[in-house]
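Hey, why these numbers?
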Amino acid sequence: MPGRIINRYGTITIADSVIANIASETAMQSYGIVGLASHDLREDLIELLKQENLGKGVKILTEGNQITIILNIVIEYDVRIGIVSQNIIESVKFRVEQATGLHVREVIVLVQDIRI
């Protein structure tokens, strides 16, 4: 369900794909991240996504004006996973809230793979 902002002039609807694109572009700018991953549970296959498909590595859950963002990431070898993940969480939350005006309740980072 897309995010909605209601003001005195009308309603603004922001598609989940727009939020996913903002989140994926922001995550990709973070130090230590190799890319976003599409996780196919049917085959337990993790695929590193190309630049034009980054939104597929992001899942958006909306509840009213609150958003939960789930990112499937691949990180570099020899980085501190906790620190990289925390930086991604803070950056994505800030950027999505700044760009959309919606409240990000939670950002969940799922580290799917590590690249050596």
Observations:
- The mean pLDDT is 85.
